[in-house]
Structure formats: structure tokens, C-alpha cells
Amino acid sequence: HNVQWGRMLCAPRVWPDLGRVRVLGTVGILTLVLCSCSGQPASPPWDLPGSSNWEHQRGLIFIHMESSLYSLPCSPMQMGVDDPTYHWVQDRAAAKLFSVTEDGHLLFQHFQAEDSGKYSCTISYTKRGVPLSQTFRYSIFGYHVPGGLDIVLLFHSKLCEDEWTKRFLQNLQEMLRPLEFEQHCRLQLTGTSCFPSLSDPSDEFIIQVQLKVSPFGPHWDEHCRSRDTESVTDCYRGTVQHNLEQVQLALTTFFKEHKFIHVTGRDTPSIPFTNEFVGFLKTEECDAGYGQTKQLQRCLDCCIVCPPGMFSPPKNRQCSLCPVGTYSPTYGAESCTPCKDGMTTKEPGTISVMFCVKEERTKQVVTVMHKIPVLLLILLLVLLGINGLFLLSCCYWLCKDHQMSSPRASKKTGKTTRMERVISFFRVSRQGPQAGPDAGPARDTSSSPGADEYAPGAPSLATTPNSAALTDETTPMLEVKDR
């Protein structure tokens, strides 16, 4: 599609270079303001800096595959210099001829996946007797909107030999070729098979032919050339859908009119191949070498060409890294190239054969890298085990201390501690005769010669004559208090 320059104000041209100027006069400021208001380009009123080489880093440029014509300017802005010279360079080792216009535009005709890459353009000119140059860099990626047709054709024939089948396919392709130019599409044979017919296996065979229709044929985008970059993708999408509908209608009519396709040999009469079935299936798949990466903001479902180090086989929507031992130096690779002579790569996604090394060295590196996670896992398990044992031991001792200090726990076991016995004795001693009818005869502990034996710190109550009675009276009193 065409490139539109747009209206450029002079302020954006000048302000990025203000950091190099220490003093800006009043006349210069007025000139910039008047220039910005009028929309006319103007040069700064001061001299250019001592360095004559500037470099501008550009973003990504997306060009649709099979575009009839795409014009890429050398400079993203209108510079207005006298007698400039342009020099385009691509980052590939192989030399390539470029089609450059007089004003420095790089032309792409029928853009292909391998045309993607990094480009740079250098403008050289002279200003006030000083030679200057500016370099602009572009990263160009091919893309396409998803869409296509898968066609299945069934023919009946009396022969199922490879020679006759090959002749039949050649005749079929010759007959379908005019449709490619009429419908602006491309027809590609993807597979054939021959098997006996179920109705009469001894006499007839069925020839199955698979075709793939690509909507990007000759001059497919002629209606979208005058669109700008914002609306051109929508135009592409509408064109693809319209072309696919027209192709389906044209093929249906074609096989109705050409029911029989005759194949002749040198010493054999013509053999008819009778068409019995035509099936269409619309697809939204990416072409081989393309994948959906959502890099193009105005078309998130578009298929972007796979960069070096990645590949995408047919009927795959994602670009994948080249496996270890392979590499891919080109854009739009369907498969990766394996390293030769027993060599391999250290990691996936290799972009050059220069990264292929001997397999022994790589095995050692891979072995060490595999051992490190195992050792870390073992160390982690050991630490978790130690922490678990520590927590279990803490819980065990806490539970044990709680059982030893709980009075209810002592009752469940049927035993009383020494401290409980002492407390029970003093309670009975304070109550005296008023303890109740079942308390038994009161005892004068003050006059008893053995009263000091029951003081705190004295021997066990079991050594006194009335220890059994005290124990029987103590138990009910403790139970009432607990309740």
C-alpha cells in the first residue's frame, strides 16, 4: 500500500536536539513558534553540532505477504535537504539487489517471508559545506490475515497406477490454472491417495485429491492499495473473505461443467476420471513459517513470520524454538536444520551453524545442569524433614506437659498428685464437725500429738491412722468444685 507522508511540524524535528544547544536566542524561539503554527519545515537557526553522523532507531514495520507493492521511505520525516544520496543495507551475509526510487524509497513487490529482516538506510548530503549523514534502521516482519480453503475431491477410475494418477494430476492442475488468475488465488496440491471402491472393488477405484486454496494470488490486494496503514488491514480481511467465497463458487461451477477428465497415453486409449464429490472447508490457520504472536496491535489474530531460531510447520498457529541440535538462520522457516558431523547446540533457538559444537562438551554441560536441580531438591527435602521432626517433638512435649499439669487428666487416670492430697487435707481440717453427717467424728488436730505431721512438707498422709477416711471425704468435695 502507498506511503503517506502526513503533515510534519518543525517542532518535533528540532526539540530532540535541544540538549546539544546551550543557549537558544529569542529569535530562534520565535522562529520555532512561527514555524509550528504555519506547518512549514524550517531549519534551526544555529549551526549543527560537531558530530555529523546521527542514528535513528525505528520500531517494527509489518508488510503483508504477497503485497503487490510496498514503498518504504528512507527517512520517517521529510528532511528537505539538497542532492541527497541513499544507501540501503540488509543485515544478511548474502548480497541482495534492492529496488530504490530516486527519492530513496525501498520498493517491495510480492513480499515474501524471506524478505523480512533488519534494514538500514543512510542519507548523505552536504549542508553549508559540511558533509553530513543520517542512518535510519527498520525491523521488517511479514504477516498475513488468516484464511483459506481445504478442498477434497473424489474421482472414480478403472486404473490405480502411479503413472496414470500422475498424468491425471498434471491435467487437473493445467485446467485449474486459469482460475488462479481469474479469482486472484493460489491452488496447491497437498496429497493424493487411491483405494478400491466399495461398490465394485474389482472394477473401479477411488482417487482422492486434496487441494489447498490460498487467497493471496496475483493482484489480490488491488482494492486496498490506496488505504492508509490504519485501515489497510481491515481491507485485507474483507478482501480475503470475498475472494474465498468467489473461489468456492467458481470451483463448484467448474467441476459441474467438467464432470469427466480424460487422460490419454501413447499406446492406450483415453481413460476417464469421473468426479463424484467436492467438499470445502474454511480454515483460519497460519501458513507454514508463520505464527500468531499478537505483535501487530491493529490485527491481534494475524499471523507473523517466525524469526531466525524459530519455525512453524504447516497447520500450526504458533512459532516454536528450534530444538537442541538444530538451527534456523532465516525468517519463515517450516523446519530447522540439524547440525552435522555429530555436533549439537547448547540450547534451543539457535540462529546460526556457528553455534553447533561437539556433542561431548555439550553433554558435560547438560549433565551438570541436570545435577544441580536434583541436588537442590534433595537439600530441600532434608531441610523439610528436619523442620517436620522439630515440630513433632515440640508438639509431643507440649502435650505431655499439659497432661501432667491438668487436674482433669489426673482424675481420668484415677491418681492424685501429692499437692492435691495436701490441699484436700487442709480443707477437711477447716470444716471440722460441720462437714456433714458422713464426715465422721471430729478430730482435735490442735491437741493431737501428731498434728505437725500434716503440715506442708510433711510425709505422705498414707502414714497416718486416718488417711483413708480423709481420702474418702476429699473426693466428693473436689468433684463438686470442678462442676
From TrEMBL:
GO cellular component, one term: extracellular region
Keyword Glycosyltransferase: no
Domain of life: Eukaryota
Keywords in alphabetical order: Membrane, Transmembrane, Transmembrane helix
Segments forming domain Ig-like: 67-137
Location of the region described as Disordered in the Swiss-Prot/TrEMBL record: 429-483
Pfam families: Ephrin_rec_like, Sp38
Biased composition range(s): Polar residues: 461-474
SUPFAM superfamilies: Immunoglobulin (SSF48726)
Gene3D superfamilies registered for this protein in UniProt: Immunoglobulins, Tumor Necrosis Factor Receptor, subunit A, domain 2
Transmembrane segments: 374-399
GO biological process assignments: acrosome assembly; binding of sperm to zona pellucida
PANTHER family named in the record: ZONA PELLUCIDA BINDING PROTEIN SP38, ZONA PELLUCIDA-BINDING PROTEIN 1
Name used for this protein in its record: ZPBP2 protein
Organism: Pampusana beccarii
Name of the gene encoding the protein in the UniProt record: Zpbp2_1
